[in-house]
Write a structure and sequence with these properties.
The complex is a heterodimer of chains A (489) and B (1531).
Chain A lengths: L5 H4 L10 H4 L12 H8 L9 H5 L6 H9 L3 H11 L3 H7 L3 H5 L11 H15 L14 E5 L3 H12 L3 E6 L7 H4 L9 H12 L3 E4 L10 H7 L2 E4 L5 E2 L12 E3 H15 L19 E5 L3 H13 L3 E5 L27 H5 L2 E3 L2 E8 L5 E10 L7 E2 L5 E4 L2 E4 L3 E3 L2 H7 L21 E3 L2 H4 L4 H24 L10
Parallel strand pairs in A: 1-2, 1-4, 2-3, 4-16, 6-14, 7-8, 7-14, 8-9
Antiparallel strand pairs in A: 5-15, 10-11, 11-12, 11-13
Helix pairs in contact in A: 3-5, 5-6, 5-9, 6-9, 7-9, 10-19, 14-15
Chain B lengths: L27 E10 L6 H13 L16 E6 L2 H6 L17 E8 L3 H17 L3 E7 L9 H5 L3 E8 L7 H18 L4 E6 L2 E6 L3 H7 L12 E9 L15 E5 L4 H11 L11 H4 L10 H14 L4 H8 L13 H10 L10 E6 L3 E6 L8 E5 L3 E5 L12 E6 L5 E5 L4 E3 L3 H7 L4 H7 L1 E3 L16 H10 L4 H14 L4 E2 L21 E3 L22 E3 L15 E4 L6 H8 L2 E2 L2 E7 L1 E3 L5 H19 L4 E5 L7 E3 L2 H15 L6 E6 L5 H9 L4 E4 H12 L8 H22 L5 H4 L5 E3 L4 H7 L12 H15 L44 H11 L5 H19 L6 E3 L14 H4 L3 E5 L7 H13 L3 E3 L23 E4 L8 H5 L3 E5 L10 E3 L6 H7 L7 E3 L9 H14 L4 E7 L4 H10 L4 E5 L8 E2 H6 L4 H14 L7 E5 L5 H10 L3 E4 L1 H6 L22 H4 L6 H22 L4 H4 ...
Parallel strand pairs in B: 17-21, 23-25, 25-27, 27-28, 31-32, 31-41, 33-34, 34-37, 37-38, 38-40, 40-41, 43-44, 44-45, 45-46, 46-47, 47-48, 48-49, 49-50
Antiparallel strand pairs in B: 1-8, 1-13, 2-7, 2-8, 3-5, 3-6, 4-5, 9-10, 10-11, 11-15, 12-13, 12-14, 15-16, 18-39, 19-29, 20-21, 22-23, 24-26, 30-42, 35-36, 50-52, 51-52
Helix pairs in contact in B: 3-5, 11-12, 11-13, 14-20, 14-24, 15-20, 15-21, 17-18, 19-21, 20-21, 25-26, 25-38, 28-38, 31-41, 32-34, 35-38, 40-41, 43-44
The chains are: A alpha/beta (489), B alpha/beta (1531).
């Protein structure tokens, strides 16, 4: 039972960060872990609620009150069991999840939320340190095989779950290394890439095969070949088609997709990091150094661009966000407790430099004679969502912009693989798989490819649930005597 | 579905089960008396005086829908030979042909009206008499005057005839004749129910009927015939919870009359049935068999008692002997206090029969000896007197048998378990243990018992393998297979193992019923514990541990009718929960004549679900074979569970086997123990014992806590100690479960089936849980088997062809972590756990709706849609119902406005103490603003809230609750109520008391509760002034006297039989009845109670509505329901099922910010709703507007439904059960066995209004029969002194109440200066003398008083002294009854004489002097001073947390009788002496007490002989405060 008075006596303490002035000159991780006594104190703030809204808000259903209490009482070993029970990769979420659990924490009503994310990260790091994270090789094999396309959090989670129940799993990744957006989107400042490699090594030791640089559905591995190799296929390719910015001047040089920039930056960091996995040189280099950088879009991708621009030495880095100013207390009227925050009041990137302008919309990009962007024209807007924006009269402004990075989200999965496999798509262009099974028998989908752009924590949850459905389908086929549903040759 | 109109033919023709109403659940209460001439000389005067006494007890009886029809009255006398001679001609006999006494008997017959049938029956009876070799002599029509009884009684009146029977020539003596008469009667009764026999005896005759006390004499002309003579008479006046005609149920029965209730009846009847297989008596020979079964299920408690009692006597036991067997006094835990002979007697007889336990005063006679006895708890009043001129009387009330004071030689009262007998043959009174002594010395009972008793520790253990400790993997598998969850370990097991206590929780139970759960809940979850309310009191097993017993035996039973050495051995266990070692001993038992047989409770999973039924059948057959082969201890075990064998639910196996053996006649030949991994909670153990097991070994539970200890999860305790503590926790918890029903001994609870099933198939229940009610049907054998396999699959997925553990299928748990136990999620919500009514979505939607901004409606719609949907799919009975549209829809505008609808709403009783003042007042303001009502809850109210504020807001709670603790219930509190609510039970923990931890008793709370800050407060489980229905009638009367303008409400909790209780409550005069669902919220309750007691309100409401309609009582009362009400749809269903009003508790709290933290009991509510911590209270953000917004949205939703149904007002909707039908939700796989026809039965007679009708409410009794208020009115207004003198009778009750009301209304809580209004009374005062007597009012009584003197004393002064001319010693005389000064908050009381049980119970402020008290003195006291200058009974100061008692203890024996749990005994210090002296002086001044005079006259020695009873906590707090005060002064 939790300490009933912990929250009254202990104030929230967030994990220490490295000094922004220092860290902006390197690419290393910026957060530190609280010392154990303080972690226990923080865990004692958890009230073990009768209705734990955190558990509800977490897409994985992390058993937050349970492991908080285990940390409070120093039972780390059981804590990691509880944590791993719902979350395959707590070190990923512990670092980069926006923590809807904390927004939903009952203490957030009139106090400061429990530092759930920090505790989660501490539990898994402790487990790694103690050597408690070990490959779990299934005792028996089913003789059935599954191909998982994509090695982002969804694909990795699906792979681990399917492997755990005895299927032979191969993960196909078109890039040079696993992780998807957590490798190529998220900066090392937030998540150093060895952390992914450490986890993937365990997965490999459990018996999962990884093939990199393989474009499934393309020439490397045509769709029928893929189907023929596996009894089931899981599409976990993410939602990688970026949303376009439809303004005059979009075609100018120096107007780039944020994700392209982040890929380049992450590959660069990999190239200078010991043990980093080198990738190909960029076709079109994107450089922020010395430039007036404007990032369009106020989400995490945008912030990560600011972070990189700061590190590159941009002249200025400004982020334009259409949402209104964050009210005191951090919550907009339409997102009261226990809903997740739309925007955090502070972010690591802005602590290091740069500026965020709320209620601002781009209307035009102007270029120089070389067709290179030089100026951004915008206006003030009001409204609580991108669909209900109203321009503020006479609020137009112009600002210098040498590099404009578009970070306004993604529209859906890339089509070639889907078309090659012949799966139907829903109205938003995602794989139509309401219960993870696509229109093609034996083809499943999960993660952003199924639901559209979402959180890493959602991706892991998707992978897990998809694995369960796929497994049941495989088991039914196996039981029916045919060995599998598919017409494996 | 079957929509029966059950009323056909004459309305009152035949009570039979219809819908949920079952007449078998009727309860009695009453007044009883017996009168005798010690010289044994028959006199007509005895009859006359007995009838006069009965008249004086009339207020204890009741009348039903027809005010002229009494519930029953009767008289039993000796067979009047002179009278029979005089009337011989009417029997067709020549004068002189009447055989002499002893050779003739009268059968009093109630016969059917139909002449032809009657003739046949009479003829049959005659032939039976002849066939039994007795002599039929003739018939006589008993002269009656039908005009003298009520209409309903007349319509149901039988033809009443007496049949004269002569003793046959072969029948040797009168005893043999009596046995023959018994055989004649029993065989006739077994043949037909058309005839019944009030009596058939050569010694006694009974006149009785469905009459009121005064009607009896006029109805039977015989009773006025001077020739009708008897030396003894028993009279009885009945109060039944129903009004169906039941001439035969009137008392006295053939040998006894009863006041009270046998709580253990179900078990007693079951065991009698089982016992019949081995019943034999040489006196009866083969005749006995023809008389069986002796008691049929459904027989009323007192009649069943009478049957068995009669048999015991006829088979050769004396009356006292039989009475002592059936109603044993406390003999456990009282070493040294009873003689070894008596202890031996009770131990011996516990081998023959379990106690018939309950609050009972039984008066019995065989015409030669008349006696009275009280149950072990002494819960019914019994007062006796003996006069110098040879009269002896025992009565429910002092003063009912009126004699000149100077003729009284001795007066006294029946104490707990004591007996008072008058032997008319020997002409002696046997009292003060004399009768018991005679019986105890009759035979070497103790020796016989010892010879055949084996304690489990005595069994040699060599060669018995000790149970192997399971490996962690094995244990985990067992836990999974038996359905354990992580929550079970963390929430339930850990506290039991660590603290030896059951865990506590808050905010009720909002999980889905087991019948809807997808998580394969255990079978235990389908069973709900029943509990005592109104008709019998629950017991406090902690504070009144002295009356409880866990002792149990294993082994064959003895022939009940045998009186010699015991035939077979028995294994005696001091408690029923066995350790694993003890279980091992039991399994291997083959010693001293005891032989165990272990039977396997598992079945091969290869056989699939169908295999379970076969396995159960096999088990039953094997058990029967084993018993017949000589095994006499059956051990059911599921230790052979493994990968291939699944466990049969242990409860199913146990009950099926028990029932089978009862049917086969083998049950009493063997003991039954269960060794199972499944039970792990108190409720589980209770269910196993309640369904037939005598001992239970929960081995997985014990292994689990041991493992937890080994892993250092239990505060470093070792595995040995936690096993012991877990066993202790289970045993202690068990006591609570049985005491909830008012049962004191495990022996009586065993196989008593005090449960009802919710959601189980009726055929399954009828077969394997025979006799248990399952109102709505549900899951059957196959479903249970599937769930058993699903649990098995969690441990052994491979065995079921699953690639992962079964529970992972629907769960979020990782496949790689399948060995983790499932979450549970019952006590706290979890994503993966059981569904809850309140989950994150409903809570946040409701809160957003209540904010009342623009989107409120949208969020309310989302809230309501989800709730209604969830109800339908996953959890509530109301969700299974849908509304039918009777006519075309109308426009919403045509429906009554929402502000009318909300007036039917109230908020539930949530005390200030549970809630913060801020939350409490927010609710009050909100409800007052909209014309609805909030409820104070228990714990008083700040008088400042009684005044309206300038802005019109009012913080007063319109409803003031009166709960068992009576905290803050003062004259002023009652005067400021619009409605006074008697809380009989609350849904979350019915039948249990409460505790407010010291931490929550801050200054403010303490002030309102008249207690000490920081000192824990205990509420007793029962109201100590409600042990039966007529007591409730009295309390209602008392409260009316204390506020004639307020309506009186009674809050009941939903359970089987609540309808019959409600009917009694309506007859007792309540204006308003609340039926609370089992799922209501609460401050703090044991988790097992929250989960396992009571049933949903839908069932209770339907039963109540049907019962009230059947009894023509519905329109007299307003019905309210309460329990997880959330949406307009909930209101609609409640209205259609018959509720006039709707209570909301949790939802309004959530509207103000509650987030179901469930820590109300810890004082750490993070949103300030349920905390007294000033820091946390500041966090409260609730506004009255939120409550109002929410309730109006509910009302608007109601309006939309009404419009759709085409109904204009809620009024028109109430009770229109035709408009509901079962909905699609029955498609749920587990729900297909559900049958709602009983729930939806329409029993309203054509034209009968199924709702409240103010015009139907009968006139209320006169509240001021002595006219005191009228006479005092001017003086009260003026504050002028006045003295009023009156003579008083025991009919005059609650004297002083109305006067006190006028005083506080005019002068506020403090009242008037001392003794401004002086009432001088003379005579025997009725109950509740001086109840809530206000400051400034004084009562001085010369005479005596009955029960409840000075209850709620609120500042007044009371004194009672014997009348002039009394010849007995005042200090030996019982001058007042039980439960004096209950809940007194102030004032003074002086009694020159002794008091009964529970003197000053829950006193929090009164000062009193008394010259002796019975058991449980100063129980639960929290303040005030009590001086006892005479002897005290047992268990003094139990639960006493405050106040001081000074007890005169000249012989230094008080300590043995004091309960030391919470108090220390100290010497008096100087200030004590001053206080004591002042009180003794006043006592002497007011009463002339010679005892006080004597003590005062020996200044050195007197005070030295007193001990001071000082509550420890109280002392600590007083000392701390004194220290603080000193510091404050110096600073």
């Amino acid at each position: 039972m939790p300490d009933p008075r912990g929250f009254i006596t202990v104030p929230r303490a967030t994990p220490p960060e490295r000094d922004p002035a220092e860290r902006v000159h390197d690419y290393g991780e910026i957060y530190k872990v609280l010392p154990e006594p303080e972690l226990k104190r923080q865990a004692s703030r958890c009230m073990g609620c009768g209705v734990p809204f955190c558990n509800h808000a977490c897409p994985l259903g992390n058993l937050i009150p349970d492991w908080n209490d285990l940390v409070r009482t120093g039972r780390w070993r059981e804590a990691i069991e509880q944590l791993h029970a719902t979350n395959n990769f707590p070190e990923f979420t512990g670092l980069v999840c926006p923590a809807p659990c904390e927004s939903a924490c009952v203490l957030d009503i009139n106090d400061d939320a429990v530092t759930i994310k920090q505790i989660e990260y501490a539990i898994i790091e402790r487990a790694w340190d103690e050597g408690w994270v070990k490959p779990v090789v299934p005792e028996t094999r089913t003789g059935l095989t599954v191909g998982v396309i994509g090695s982002g959090p969804a694909g990795l989670a699906a792979a681990q779950e399917l492997n755990a129940v005895g299927h032979e799993v191969t993960v196909y990744e078109r890039d040079e290394a696993p992780g998807g957006l957590i490798r190529f989107g998220v900066p090392d400042a937030k998540l150093e890439k060895w952390i992914i490699d450490r986890r993937v090594r365990v997965l490999a030791d459990e018996g999962i095969h990884f093939e990199y640089g393989v474009e499934a559905g393309g020439d490397d591995l045509p769709a029928d070949e893929l189907r023929a190799r596996h009894d089931a296929v899981v599409i976990a390719t993410g939602s990688r088609v970026p949303r376009e910015l439809e303004v005059p001047g979009r075609e100018l040089d120096g107007v780039q997709m944020a994700m392209d920039y982040l890929y380049i930056r992450n590959r660069y960091v990999a190239s200078i990091t010991e043990g980093g996995i080198p990738g190909p040189e960029p076709e079109v280099p994107i450089v922020a150094e010395g430039k007036d950088v404007v990032v369009i879009g106020g989400g995490d991708t945008g912030m990560d661009c600011i972070s990189n621009a700061n590190r590159e030495g941009a002249r200025s880095a400004i982020l334009l966000d259409v949402y209104p100013e964050i009210p005191v207390g951090g919550r907009y009227d339409d997102t009261p407790w226990p809903l997740p925050l739309k925007r955090s009041v502070t972010t690591y990137a802005l602590d290091e430099g740069g500026e965020r302008r709320f209620g601002t919309q781009v209307t035009q990009l102007r270029g120089d004679e070389n067709g290179h962007v030089r100026e951004l024209v915008g206006r003030k807007v009001t409204g609580s969502s991108s669909r209900t924006l109203l321009p503020v009269p006479e609020s137009e402004f112009a600002m210098p912009a040498d590099l404009v990075l578009i970070a306004v989200g993604f529209t859906g999965p890339e089509r070639p693989l889907l078309d090659a496999l012949g799966v139907e798509r829903d109205g938003r262009g995602n794989v139509a798989a309401p219960l993870f099974a696509s229109s093609e028998s034996g083809v499943f989908a999960c993660g952003d490819a199924r639901v559209g752009q979402s959180l890493i924590v959602t991706a892991i949850a998707e992978g897990r649930r998809c694995a369960r459905i796929a497994d049941r389908w495989l088991a039914e086929g196996a039981r029916s005597g045919a060995g599998a549903h598919t017409a494996t040759a | 579905m079957d929509r029966r109109r059950t009323k056909v033919g004459p309305r009152y023709s035949s009570p039979r089960p219809a819908g949920l109403y079952d007449p078998a659940r009727e309860h009695d209460g009453c007044g009883v008396a017996c009168i005798a001439r010690l010289d044994g000389k028959p006199l007509h005067e005895v009859v006359q005086r007995a009838l006069a006494t009965l008249d004086q007890l009339e207020h204890r009886g009741a009348a039903g829908a027809d005010p002229e029809t009494g519930d029953g009255a009767g008289i039993l006398i000796q067979l009047p030979h002179a009278f029979l001679r005089k009337h011989a001609g009417e029997f067709g006999l020549e004068e002189g042909a009447l055989p002499p006494p002893g050779e003739v008997a009268v059968a009093v017959c109630f016969l059917p009206a139909d002449e032809a049938r009657r003739a046949t029956l009479e003829q049959e009876l005659e032939s039976t008499v002849s066939a039994e070799n007795q002599v039929p002599l003739g018939w006589r029509d008993v002269p009656i005057d039908p005009e003298r009884c009520g209409t309903i009684a007349r319509e149901a009146m039988p033809v009443i005839r007496q049949f004269l029977i002569g003793r046959g020539p072969d029948t040797p003596d009168q005893d043999a004749f009596e046995r023959k008469l018994f055989v004649i009667r029993r065989t006739t009764e077994l043949r037909t129910t058309e005839i019944s026999f009030p009596s058939m005896s050569s010694r006694t005759v009974v006149y009785k009927g469905m009459l009121s006390a005064p009607q009896l004499t006029d109805f039977y002309a015989d009773l006025s015939d001077p020739a009708l003579e008897s030396a003894l008479a028993i009279v009885h006046s009945r109060f039944s919870t129903n009004t169906f005609p039941s001439w035969s149920l009137a008392h006295p029965h053939r040998m006894s009359a009863h006041n009270g209730e046998i709580n253990t009846l179900a078990g007693n009847i079951n065991w009698m049935q089982a016992r019949e297989a081995i019943l034999s008596s040489p006196l009866f020979g083969s005749d006995l068999e023809r008389c069986l079964p002796l008691v049929a299920p459904g027989t009323s408690d007192s009649l069943a008692f009478d049957h068995v009692f009669e048999l015991l006597c006829l088979a050769g036991r004396s009356l006292p002997h039989a009475a002592m067997m059936m109603i044993p006094r406390v003999h456990e835990n009282r070493k040294g206090s009873i003689s070894p002979e008596l202890e031996g007697f009770y131990n011996y007889h516990s081998r023959l029969i379990e106690p018939w336990d309950g609050p009972a005063a039984i008066v019995f006679t065989d015409g030669r000896l008349v006696g009275a006895t009280l149950d072990r708890n002494g819960l019914r009043p019994g007062r006796w007197l003996i006069t110098h001129d040879g009269w002896v009387a025992v009565s429910s009330e002092a003063g009912s048998f009126q004699v000149p004071e100077e003729t009284i030689a001795e007066k006294g009262r029946l104490g707990p378990g004591s007996m008072f007998c008058v032997d008319l043959e020997r002409n002696v009174v046997l009292d003060r243990g004399a009768a018991e002594r005679e019986v105890a010395h009759m035979a070497p009972w103790g020796k016989w018992d010892d010879e055949r008793t084996i304690h489990i520790d005595e069994v040699p253990r060599d060669g018995i393998p000790s149970q192997r400790e399971p490996s962690p993997e094995e244990l985990r598998e067992a836990q999974l297979a038996f359905g354990y969850s992580q929550e079970d370990l963390r929430v339930v097991l850990a506290p039991m193992a660590r603290d030896a206590k059951e865990p506590t929780g808050s905010m009720g139970n909002d999980v889905a019923l087991a019948m809807f759960s997808e998580n394969a809940p255990s079978l235990f979850a389908y069973f709900k514990q029943r509990f005592a309310q109104v008709t019998n009191p629950a017991i406090d097993p902690v504070r009144e541990y002295v009356v409880m017993s866990l002792r149990t035996g294993l082994g064959p039973e003895e022939n009940l009718l045998e009186q010699g050495a015991l035939a077979s051995p028995q294994l005696v266990l001091e408690q029923p929960v066995l350790s694993n070692q003890e279980a091992a001993v039991l399994r291997a038992l083959d010693w001293g004549g005891l032989r165990a047989k272990v039977l396997d409770m598992t079945w091969p999973i290869a056989d699939g679900p169908a295999g379970m039924e076969a396995a159960v059948e096999r088990l039953c057959g094997d058990a029967q074979d084993a018993v017949r082969a000589g095994a006499n201890v059956i051990v059911l075990s599921d230790r052979s569970l493994d990968e291939s064998r699944a466990a049969i639910p242990s409860l199913l196996a146990t009950s099926a086997l028990h029932q089978h053996l009862v049917r086969s006649g083998d049950r009493v030949r063997t003991g039954l123990a269960v060794e199972s991994g499944e039970p792990r909670e108190v409720h589980h153990i209770a269910a196993l014992i309640g369904y037939g097991a005598s001992a239970v070994n929960p081995y997985v539970m014990l292994d689990t806590v041991a493992e937890m200890a080994d892993q250092h999860e239990l505060d470093g305790l070792g595995s040995g100690i936690v096993r012991q503590r877990a066993v202790l926790a289970l045993n202690t918890g068990l006591l609570k479960v049985l005491s909830k029903m008012g049962i004191s001994t495990i022996q009586s609870y065993n196989a008593a089936q005090i449960f009802e099933a919710v959601g189980l198939d009726r055929d399954l229940v009828d077969l394997h849980f025979t006799g248990t009610a399952s109102t709505i049907g549900g899951v059957g054998m196959e479903g249970l088997a599937k769930e058993a396999l699903a649990r098995h699959a969690r441990a052994y997925p491979d065995a079921h062809g699953l690639s992962e553990p079964g529970h992972v299928e629907t769960a979020l748990l990782s496949a790689a972590h399948g060995e983790l136990l499932p979450q549970g999620g019952v006590y706290a919500w979890r994503r993966d756990g059981e569904r809850h009514m309140w989950d994150p979505e409903t809570i946040s939607n409701l809160q957003r709706a209540a904010q009342g901004n623009g989107s409120g409606k949208v969020h309310y719609a989302a809230f309501s849609e989800r709730v209604n949907e969830e109800n339908a799919q996953h959890g509530l009975i109301r969700g299974l119902l849908r509304m039918r549209q009777p006519g075309p829809p109308i426009a919403v505008e045509e429906v009554e406005p929402a502000n009318e609808i909300v007036k039917r709403f109230s908020t539930g009783a949530m005390s200030l103490g549970a809630l913060s003042p801020e939350a409490h007042e927010t609710l009050a303001i909100a409800m007052n603003r909209i014309g609805a009502r909030s409820n104070s809850g228990e714990g008083g109210e700040d008088p400042r809230r009684y005044v309206r504020e300038r802005n019109g807001d009012w913080r007063r709670s319109a409803i003031k609750q009166v709960a068992s603790g009576r905290f803050g219930v003062t004259a002023d509190y009652l005067a400021n109520a619009a409605q006074i609510q008697i809380k009989i039970a609350q849904g979350a923990k019915p039948g249990e008391g409460g505790q407010l931890p010291g931490a929550k008793v801050g200054e403010y709370i303490a002030q309102l509760r008249y207690s000490t800050p920081g000192v824990e407060l205990i509420s007793p489980p029962p109201h100590h002034d409600i042990y039966s229905i007529e007591d409730l009638k009295q309390l209602i009367y008392d409260l009316r006297a204390s506020n004639p303008r307020a309506t009186v409400s009674v809050k009941l909790a939903s359970e089987l039989g609540v309808g019959t209780v409600a009917a009694g409550v309506v007859k007792a005069g309540a204006d308003h009845v609340v039926i609370a669902g089992h799922d209501g919220g609460t401050g703090a309750s044991p988790l097992s109670s929250i989960q396992s007691a009571g049933v949903p309100w839908e069932i209770g409401l339907a039963e109540t509505q049907q019962t009230l309609l059947e009894n023509d009582l519905r329109s007299r009362v307003i019905l309210q329901i309460d329990g997880q009400m959330r949406t307009g749809r909930d209101v609609m269903i409640a209205a259609l099922l018959g509720a006039d009003e709707y209570g909301f508790s949790t939802a309004p709290l959530i509207a103000t910010g509650c987030i179901m933290m469930r820590v109300c009991h810890l004082n750490t509510c993070p949103v300030g709703v349920a905390s007294q911590d000033p820091e946390l209270r500041r966090r409260f953000q609730g506004k009255p507007e939120q409550v109002i917004n929410y309730l109006f949205m509910v009302a608007e939703e109601v309006r939309e439904f009404l419009a759709r149904l085409g109904v204009r007002t809620v009024e028109e909707l109430i009770g229109q059960v035709d408009m509901i039908e079962p909905g699609e939700a029955l498609a749920h796989w587990k729900a297909h066995g559900v049958d709602l026809s009983q729930l939806l039965a329409d029993v309203a007679a054509p034209g009968e209004l199924p709702r409240h009708d103010p015009a139907a409410v009968p006139a209320r009794e006169d509240l001021d029969p002595l006219g005191l208020a009228d006479e005092a009115r001017e003086a009260i207004k003026a504050g002028r002194p006045i003295v009023i003198e009156r003579d008083i009778l025991n009919l005059h009750r609650a004297i002083g109440g109305v006067v006190s009301h006028e005083v506080v209304k005019a002068h506020g809580p403090a009242g008037l200066p001392d003794e401004t209004i002086k009432l001088r009374l003379r005579g025997s005062a009725g109950q509740s003398l001086g109840a809530w007597l206000a400051g400034g009012v004084a009562i001085d009584l010369r005479g005596e008083a009955n029960d409840y003197v000075g209850k709620g004393l609120s500042g007044g002064v009371l004194s009672i002294r014997p009348p002039e001319g009394a010849t007995y010693l005042p200090e030996d005389n019982v001058i007042l009854g039980n439960v004096a000064l209950y809940g007194a908050t102030g004032g003074r009381a002086f009694f020159r004489g002794r008091a009964g049980e529970r003197f000053a119970v829950r006193n929090s402020g009164a000062k009193a002097v008394v010259e002796g008290v019975g058991d449980h003195g100063c129980e639960y006291m929290t303040g005030g001073i009590v001086v006892v200058i005479g002897s005290t009974g047992y268990n003094f100061a139990a639960g006493m947390t405050g106040g001081i008692a000074y007890v005169y203890d000249p012989d230094d024996t008080f300590s043995e009788r004091c309960n030391h749990q919470l108090v220390d005994l100290e010497a008096l210090v100087a200030e004590d002496r001053v206080e004591l002296r002042d009180l003794l002086l006043e006592h002497h001044r007011r009463t002339g007490s010679t005892v006080a005079e004597r003590i005062l006259a020996s200044p050195g020695e007197g005070p030295e002989r007193f001990v001071k009873v000082m509550p420890r906590e109280y002392k600590r707090v007083i000392e701390e405060r004194a220290k603080l005060a000193t510091v404050g002064v110096t600073a």
